[in-house]
Design a protein that fits this description.
Length: 130
């Protein structure tokens, strides 16, 4: 019972890290192959996200250990790879070679995916470019 709740909470937190943290990092720190631990921690604090799963946020936006991953969050490369495996199974069909670009791709707005136009009346009378 508690295992299911913990897994649900973990999944929701990871989704928030992808949906909110990714665009924030991109906007404030620019495009990067990896973000620093301090950038990720600062963004989590500003966005008021759940910091209990911070190692997962770091594993989303870093693929290599650094001095700060070891000193600040106690994540060496082995622990980072284990967390990345969990994330890969949840989001990337088990592909552990995902990078920041792949994570940011998940949070892009997909736009109109078919179905009824949001303004079908305007579209019918030719006032939109749909």
């Amino acid at each position: 019972m508690f295992g299911l709740f913990r897994q649900y909470k973990l999944r929701k937190t990871i989704q928030a890290y992808v949906r909110e943290l990714g665009p924030y990092l991109l906007k404030n720190y620019g495009g990067s192959g990896q973000y620093t631990v301090m950038q990720i921690q600062a963004a989590i604090k500003v966005l008021k996200l759940n910091a209990d799963y911070m190692p997962y946020a770091i594993a989303l936006y870093r693929h290599e250990e650094s001095i700060n991953t070891v000193k600040r969050v106690w994540l060496n490369q082995v622990a980072l790879d284990e967390i990345r495996l969990t994330i890969a199974q949840l989001l990337f069909d088990g592909n552990t070679r995902y990078r920041v670009e792949h994570v940011l791709e998940l949070c892009k707005d997909r736009g109109w995916q078919g179905g009824q136009s949001p303004s079908w009346g305007a579209n019918k009378s030719g006032r939109t470019s749909l």
